Predict the structure.
Amino acid sequence: MELPTACTLCPRACGADRAAGQTGYCGAGDTLLAARAALHHWEEPCLAGDPETGPGSGTVFFSHCALRCGYCQNWPISQGGVGRPVSTERLAEIFLGLQEKGAKNLDLVTATQWLPWVLPALDAARARGLALPVVYNTGGYETVGTVQRLAPYVDVWLTDWKYADPALAERLSAAADYPAVCEAALRQMLIQTGAPVYDADGFLQKGVLVRVLVLPGHADDAVAVLERLAALRRQTGVPLLLSLMRQFTPFYRAAELGLGRRVTSYEYRKAVDAAVRLGLCDGYTQEKSSAREEYTPPFDFEGL
Ligand code: SF4
């Protein structure tokens, strides 16, 4: 995959001449940057196992992001410029190293802006014995074309569906098209990936896991997302897993965006009740104690 001269890797389609060193809306230019590659124990149990005793996912946190949400828990790397250059060859070695450390899968966090490096690195690592399922961990703001391009590479889509309301998507992520874009991408993920498949130990090998994060003051929007998710499942006929999250912690510019508190039990219960009513019962909910800062690991360049 060539470095784009007019980038359209993500729905921003900002047209940056990445090959000439121009940086795009996402902040990515002509050198891949990443912030951490290590075993990560905080993904859902079907990916990482038990947080205390499980094997963990082999998680690579890439720098920059096309969505740039104002409340991002990974804001130092998504928008703060933290990252270290990594070559394609080194990335392939990192992938293989995570497999050797016992990871249950390779978990690529926000990789789309770096696909011209990531895809050849996956090819090279596979040629040298990488056999782990590849988990594509995304904010859900993907083009259908990019999802299709990833079909030979991605086994598990771990995708957010952040908003149903275009005005909310515009206010928090400057992306009024997010609801429509996310829905189209998710439809493609479901069609090309199919129903969840597990190994003998219950680890997910294939499928789509959708994360819906309940935001303070916006439980009704989470319910609207769940309604659209249930409709999509009906239309495609493809089962999916839901991870209904209450771990929101006010990071970055959250307070100035009106998100300066955690989610109440009442708000979260409203979303859980909707998921049950809609038959979205396969997956995960979170305890109140999940609203902690440990979900964000140190971006200290470990494993790079
Ligand atoms: S990935 Fe980055 S550079 Fe490419 S279109 Fe999206 S925002 Fe622009």
The first helix runs from residue 45 to 48. The domain at 25-295 is CATH 3.20.20.70 (TIM Barrel). The mean pLDDT is 95.
